[in-house]
Amino acid sequence: LSFNKKSYFFAAFCCSRRGMEQLLDMETLKQLTPEKQQQVIQAVKQQAAIANAQNLITDLSEKCTQKCITSPGSSLSSSDKQCLQRCMDRFMDSWNLVSQTLQKRLQEELTSSGAFHGGSSSFS
Questions:
Q1: How far apart, in whole angstroms, are the C-alpha atoms of residue 10 and residue 104?
Q2: What is the maximal distance between C-alpha atoms in the chain?
Q3: 92 near 64, Cβ under 8 Å?
């Protein structure tokens, strides 16, 4: 798995839990001390990393199994194994590319919005 330091945004914005929404209220975050901001950011990172990993594993399993396992049996054929490996590799490459692009856009939005004490983001 490849999660860099800003991948938590993806899960945070995808989650609909009220607690996550409250954690991302920018006006409230700006009023916190830098130490409290870091605590909130760390909590969001942890929750988002867990959500990202769960989503990734679920999606990867469903898509690659449906594509590659055409006739279930007691063992996988060599072609099934090869298909699964290629599918997982392509899926992970795509996932990482999409995540990196999203993170870049979110960081650009944060930077341009001047969030966190005059534009210096605590997220870097």
A1: 11
A2: 61
A3: no
User: Is 40 in contact with 29 (CB distance < 8 Å)?
Assistant: yes
Q: What is the architecture of the domain spanning 8-113?
A: Orthogonal Bundle (1.10)
pTM summary value: 0.53
d(CA 28, CA 37): 10
20, 62, 78, 106 from 13: Cα distances, Å:
8, 23, 40, 10
The per-residue pLDDT for range 19-72, each reduced to its tens digit, is 454 545 677 777 888 888 888 888 888 888 899 889 889 999 999 999 999 888
Quick count: other Cβ atoms within 10 Å of Cβ 120? 12
